[in-house]
Specification:
Mean pLDDT: 95
Number of domains: 2
Number of strands: 24
Oligomer: single chain
Shape: globular
CATH class of the largest domain: Alpha Beta
Number of helices: 14
Bound molecules: uridine-diphosphate-2(N-acetylglucosaminyl) butyric acid
């Protein structure tokens, strides 16, 4: 649990860690490589620890090096089973499906369960693998995929809410080891997908077009060991920027991947937040004259859904009517009710939230429901008058490394106390 004393403007310099959502599929992909892989800039997060455990449970040797990088050797992997026990802890475990199938011709991966941010099917992953020739069936809660030889194919990965990020990665790696050429249409364009392709190409894959909606992959016989540094986390950078804005602070964010943050910077500009950028630094300057805004979370290059909750916290503090629509996860609004407990005025209408900003949020005991909701509640508590109590911050630890320490170094007053049972 966090105790947060609100009302302190953030000031100073903070450093962004490596990207969680780039690290997870890359870690999973090491299962398809028989040589040694060294990964730099992998953040120290609970989700990364879960993925490491998953790789070890399948038989990979995983070593944490003194310089913070991770060395993985999947040479001796013999199993291709990802158990329910681990997959249920983290949906991104499904990223091992493509690598296991590609290398061993068979994979048995537990079907992920429900999710607090809405309905999250994996039909597009399965449809894509089937298009490459895999035989897919569901058996006792597990996805069983078989195909000793996959073949390149033309496929379209567009779902009802746009492309799929981890689905694109799963198909890319399966196609990288298939026979012949694959063309993925409606591929996700996120920077994390681009980093995934860079990693695979360094390992010997032949992938072109990553970052556009059409990705072409020429299959190769095998992938080799490689060293790769993952990109900085654009969502952490955006969260820190919004923390600076909501406290009317003055913060320099280093290692910020500003070229990946165009939509976030456009949103900050619309709201009236002054900032300066270099390719790897974002400086947010104090301003108390902010404007309400209409924002839409869309697939990349749109505003990330992973920043929607944090922007909702910010807009709750700006007088006037704002609206945020989420086209990616149309039900991802569980944080709204908690923000209302802190005095925010928010109504949910379909896939949108209508926000009437208030001049002052007030402290309250609140409960985090997922990773980005936790971040939004911390930001709201930084701006609120009084002491807030935020429960279930273990959600936050899944995706932000030392978040309260980073904020405290900027002048926030956050204390971590025992969270109690995870109920
Ligand atoms: N979808 C389908 N069918 C599928 C796959 C997805 O209909 O087979 C739908 C989803 O329900 C959703 C949309 O397509 O409405 C996009 O989902 P996507 O598959 O892109 O999400 P994901 O790959 O499971 C990743 C991130 C999420 C992030 C989303 C969207 C990782 C490990 N996770 O999830 O990150 O919100 O892309 O950008 O990369 C987070 O970090 O807090 C987080 C949830």
């Amino acid at each position: 649990m966090f105790w947060v004393e609100g009302g302190h403007p953030l000031q100073g310099t903070v450093h962004v860690d490596g990207s969680k959502n780039a690290s997870l599929p890359i870690l999973a992909a090491t299962l398809a490589i028989a040589g040694e892989v060294t990964l730099e800039q992998i953040p120290q997060l609970q989700d990364v620890a879960t993925m490491r455990q998953l790789l070890q449970s399948i038989g990979a040797a995983v070593e944490l090096l003194d310089d913070g990088s991770i060395r993985i050797n999947a040479h001796d992997v013999r199993s291709s089973v990802a158990s329910y026990e681990l997959v249920r802890q983290m949906r991104a475990s499904v990223c091992v499906l493509g690598p296991l199938l590609a290398r061993f011709g068979t994979a048995r991966v537990s079907l992920p369960g429900g999710c607090n941010i809405g309905h999250r099917p994996i039909d597009l992953h399965l449809r894509g693998l089937a298009a490459l020739g895999a035989d897919i069936r569901l058996e006792a809660g597990y996805i069983v995929a078989e195909g000793s030889q996959l073949y390149g194919a033309e496929l379209d990965l567009c779902g009802p809410h746009g492309p799929t990020v981890t689905g694109t990665c799963n198909i890319m790696i399966a196609a990288a080891l298939a026979k012949g050429r694959t063309r993925i249409r409606s591929a996700a364009k996120e920077p994390e997908v681009q980093d995934f392709a860079r990693f695979l190409n360094a390992a010997g894959a032949q992938i072109s077009g990553a970052g556009t909606s059409i990705v072409e992959i020429d299959g190769v016989d095998h992938l080799r060991g490689v060293r790769h540094a993952v990109i900085p986390d654009r969502i952490e950078a955006a969260t820190l920027a919004i923390a600076a804005a909501i406290t009317h602070g003055d913060v320099t964010i280093k290692n910020a991947p500003t070229t990946h943050l165009t939509s976030v910077l456009n949103a900050l500009d619309l709201i009236g937040i002054p900032f300066e950028v270099t390719p790897d630094t974002l400086h947010i300057r104090a301003s108390s004259r902010l404007r309400p805004a209409r924002l839409t979370a869309d697939p990349y290059p749109g505003l990330p859904t992973d920043c929607q909750a944090q922007f909702m916290a910010l807009l709750s503090t700006i007088p006037g009517e704002s609206r945020i629509t989420d086209t990616v996860f149309p039900e991802r609004f569980r944080h709204a009710a908690e923000l209302v407990r802190m005095g925010a005025d928010i109504r949910i209408q379909g896939n949108s939230a209508v926000i009437h900003g208030v001049t002052q949020l007030s402290a309250a005991p609140v409960m985090a429901s997922d990773l980005r909701a936790s971040a939004a509640l911390v930001l709201a508590a930084l701006a609120a008058e009084g002491h807030s109590e935020i429960r279930r911050v273990y959600h936050l630890d899944r995706g932000y490394h030392a978040f309260e320490q980073k904020l405290n170094q900027l002048g926030a007053r956050i204390q971590r106390v025992n969270d109690g049972p995870k109920i």
